[in-house]
């Protein structure tokens, strides 16, 4: 058994860059006090933590079905390097929990939606005891569809909401339109669903919206998931060593670039630049804030933010970045240029390590890639900032009957089955002989039918604590886990780590233009001065007021660090 699990929960970047869906386990603390904003019921702004959260959160009971070959450490995933024979798989759901009822589920999908009566869906429905009808929507425009659905009265029984779509009016719609799962999951009640009881507590913490436990989480590692990948085979051949500082990287990049020969050193390295200079994590706007020296600072106000953009700009200016990156072409992505040898370093979700290695194994046996440790601006230890422990949520319609809610929890419990179980194999790979076959080493491999149908559905309705299991490439599994463990040792949690925060609507889109401005700066279309001016305007247009709001929230709730 070798589910293609990645080490962290999917972000928009990882979904668009890789077909691997990420899941990870972390254990974290809880804030100290209750949130501001009055009573818990129906709160539209703020957050819930501390004593109030402890009354809501499910009890945690760790799973011990199969011991990992590489135990989790420093927030990493656990690693499994050996295949588990089908006759040795355990059972984590001994009886069907579903009632035989039907649920409609809306979820994003990057690809062509499969037929609702395909063998994979049928097998899952039969095993769980629930008939699912999937309403798959184009992931690229999912926010538009989601907004329209939540504004209507025709909401499916179950709705998947990626964290990056929690913008505009959607957070308040979540509070108004979705059910409280606390009566079924809070405290020891979750023990009726043992696989859900093994989901880490801080992932559940993120599922508290409007003072109620409203979602099933897709748990994720807090270790930063963007890695600078390099062509290890080329580095070894040329005698190069991974750089230890940004200056070393630039010097190496100038040496390695051969524009006439069609080889450039790297792609756009902005994401790695933010890590190299210790910029606060950008995956969630709440994580842009951190208490430093007694003052709450937003990442766009820091010197590190400007320095990271300036270094990324220098790479473009030096001509070491592939020209397609400057032109913004998406038809020939960086990963494709990387495997073709047209560039030697690119940054992407850590899960791409397995994807690219597997892809190149047959056609280019000499291909080898690895992930550089995060180098820094001064050659010292990196300062990395934790991502949120959950970034995809699955909700139940507030109008759903008690039986529909229980049927959904039956699905979630089945899909949260741990590695080494029959349930995990079915959820990840589908039906043997139809969706996957076993190779000589007992490793399952998806058929064309499996690739097209076993995706974008049950992925979102439950996941176990994070693991990476690629027995067909054990060296990649080990490399991914050990990279996480090394980087996890330098990862800090900022002031609002682990909290789901609904900002006041008047300020919720205040910083939306900064990502485009960043890209313009590193490509030389704008200057650092334009960023400084934008920060000044941000402060005047509400940034300082938003700071005061966050500070009041922090003073009342405490920090999760």
UniProtKB/TrEMBL annotation:
**Cell compartments where the protein resides:** Cell envelope
Q: Which PROSITE patterns match?
A: TAT
Q: Which family does it belong to?
A: Belongs to the bacterial solute-binding protein 1 family.
Q: Where are the transmembrane segments?
A: none
Keyword terms of this UniProt record: Signal, Transport
Q: Which domain of life is it from?
A: Bacteria
Q: What is this protein called?
A: Extracellular solute-binding protein
List, alphabetically, the Pfam families matched. Answer: SBP_bac_8
Q: Does the keyword Isomerase apply?
A: no
Q: Which residues form the signal peptide?
A: 1-22
